From TrEMBL:
NCBIfam families: flippase-like domain
Database matches in Pfam families: LPG_synthase_TM
Broad class of where this protein is predominantly found: membrane
Protein's UniProt keywords contain Magnesium: no
Its membrane topology: Multi-pass membrane protein
Species assigned in the record: Aquimarina muelleri
Keyword check for Transmembrane helix: yes
Location within or outside the cell: Cell membrane
Chain ranges passing through the membrane: 39-56, 88-105, 117-141, 174-195, 201-219, 226-242, 254-276
UniProtKB keywords: Cell membrane, Membrane, Transmembrane, Transmembrane helix
Protein name as annotated: Membrane protein
A GO term from the CC aspect: plasma membrane
Length: 280
């Protein structure tokens, strides 16, 4: 089976546009903190983060914050706080898409997520618990005079300032637009890639949304979804009568094309960031 390259190229293009949109949306979160960053630096920091996640899960957020901190002179704690805000928004968007998907394919999707959905929500509960503990800890050291605790307090205050930047956005309509644009492009990436496999070319939007949800959970189980992503796609497509080889082929084509472009652009970003920011 030979995949039609024009659909792969279109999916890759949509993916790159979504990354650009994410980089541009990030500027809205940094602006209330008093920082106006270059789109090129924002974009390359995002791509470096994606590249890092392929090696160590969630290390990309830290490296992304460190990159923008280095080249835009933004305190890391504030930059990282804005990334946390982004992740909260992303979670809400994923939950919205899950809700919409349930309207299309409630029984089939629920049968698949019955075991899978526990892990993300447990992770969310742990994250919320850690956040609460962090807030309690920050309040406990608020009046401390210990030098180490003072440094921790200052870092925590900066982190919270970055998180709170979402409530100070002046261009809220633009921020919301780019949020929906990013996730709309994600879904479009899935939709157009279906034409690369004859067995999936006629799938309607309902199954595509179901595969999107399954793929999103798979991406969080391993570094960059390697191995797990195609398996998850094939498993959900089995529910729609698509044989396993065709489902896995679709998953590998989508994962492989997007991962390849993330590696290429991420590596080029490492190379060009210091060149384009020589004055810094």
């Amino acid at each position: 089976m030979q995949a039609d390259p024009k659909w792969i190229l279109l999916s890759i293009t949509l993916g790159v546009i979504s990354h650009l949109a994410r980089a541009y949306r990030w500027k809205f979160l940094l602006a209330p903190l008093g920082y106006s960053v270059k789109l090129s630096n924002s974009f390359m920091a995002v791509m470096i983060g994606y590249l890092a996640n392929l090696g160590i899960p969630r290390s990309g957020e830290i490296l992304r914050g460190g990159t923008i901190s280095t080249y835009e002179n933004i305190p890391f704690k504030k930059a990282f706080g804005t990334i946390i805000s982004e992740r909260v928004i992303d979670l809400l968007m994923l939950l919205l898409i899950i809700a919409i998907t349930l309207l299309f394919q409630s029984e089939l999707l629920l049968s698949y997520l019955q075991e899978k959905i526990a892990s993300p929500f447990i992770s969310l509960a742990i994250l919320i618990g850690l956040l609460i503990c962090g807030i309690i800890f920050l309040r406990a050291i608020k009046t401390s005079t210990n030098p180490i605790l003072i440094k921790l307090r200052n870092f925590g205050d900066g982190l919270l300032e970055g998180v709170k930047s979402i409530s100070k956005i002046k261009q809220r309509k633009a921020f919301i637009f780019y949020t929906f644009l990013i996730w709309g492009l994600y879904i479009c990436m899935f939709y157009v890639i279906k034409f690369t496999v004859p067995e999936t070319a006629s799938l309607p939007i309902g199954p595509i949304l179901a595969t999107f949800v399954a793929g999103s959970f798979a991406m969080s189980t391993t570094n960059g979804g390697i191995g797990a992503f195609p398996i998850a796609i094939a498993a959900i497509l089995l529910l729609f009568g698509i044989e396993k080889p065709a489902g896995e082929a679709l998953g590998w084509i989508l994962w492989g094309s997007q991962t390849a472009i993330n590696i290429i652009i991420g590596a080029l970003s490492f190379l060009f960031l210091p060149i384009l920011n020589r004055e810094k």
